[in-house]
Amino acid sequence: MSVAAGKSVRPLYFVASYPRSGGTWVRSMAYLLIVLSQPDAPKQIDMRNLDNIIPWDAHGLLYRAVTGREHDTLDELEVAEARPKVHTLLATEDISLPVVRTHAIRGTFHGHETINPKVTGGATYVVRNPLNVAAALVEMEGVAPLRIIELMMKTDRRVQQAQFTVAEPQGSWTQNVASWTGAPQKEILVLRFEDMVADPAREFQKLARHMAIPANERTIEKACGLMAEMHKAEGWAEDRRDYRTILQPAHARAVIEGHAIEMNRHGYLTERVLSHAGIERAEALAIAAKYAPVMAG
Q1: Residue 246 phi/psi, 5° resolution?
Q2: Which residues, other chains included, contact 18 with Cβ-Cβ below 8 Å and sequence gap of 6+?
Q3: Per-domain residue ranges for the chain?
């Protein structure tokens, strides 16, 4: 599919994040706000089909649709070439909402744009303290903290092809965050996970405004209530995680040394964090600066 083929484009809105940062929460809220803002909003909303309603741009079925081949037969170069075509497909075919999940860096992948600018209207990037991201990944993957910390620091990291997905260029945590938030742009709303926990109604009002969803205060309150009920039913405890129960001070120091610059920019390099890791702010920033030119390149 291509824009040049004469099909009208519904500009895509990306919900982007590094994994375990709150992207699913924001996707769910975006869907709730869209549905509840309609005059004929249903009384019951089924969220089980969310991954089809707001698709992940690494899903293999989308690559089969644009290449005519099974996703597990595509190499990295072919995936990189197909990514912009997948975005065009989602923008020109009415197969889902024009809202897309991605964990990819915003940049290039083998010379191709990771986010197709020709069909993109805007995005929300969800950022979370990398110490809690690391703790969440340790719990999810069941591997040693140092292994997760190493992966989060790996420059230009690709998450390899899986049963249902193609390879995805996620980069390091610093690369990923900086690629979306390093240069402030009105088209990109940045939400912090911690702020969503502290005051979800306030943060999701920002989301509704940015996505031009006509959600009033009552609609936002109702959506937040439904989201809270779903979290409770799922036993969701992400908002109460304390990385210190999983990461030892040496682990925390390793995370900080790799990502202090972006942590500081987003308000995560607090005295509490520095004290737990046993490192001074100036030292942390100086060490991280050695990695930054490479990691953000």
Answers
A1: -120, -40
A2: 103, 127, 128, 130, 133, 170, 173, 176, 177
A3: 9-238, 243-295
Q: Are 36 and 210 in contact (CB under 8 A)?
A: no
Alpha helices (H) in 93-215, listed in sequence order: 130-141, 145-153, 173-181, 193-198, 200-210
Q: SS3 for 253?
A: helix
51-71 core/surface letters (b: 16 or more CB in 10 A; e: else): eebbbbbbbbebbbbbbeeeb
CATH number listed for the domain at residues 9-238: 3.40.50.300
- The rounded distance, in Å, linking the Cα atoms of 15 and 295 is 22
**CA 118, CA 104: separation in Å to the nearest integer?**
17
pTM for this entry: 0.94
Cβ of 8: how many Cβ atoms within 10 Å? 7
Within 13 A of 197's CA, how many CA atoms are on the CB side?
15
Dump pLDDT digits (tens) for 30-73: 999 999 999 888 878 888 899 999 999 999 999 999 999 999 99
DSSP secondary-structure letter at 5?
G
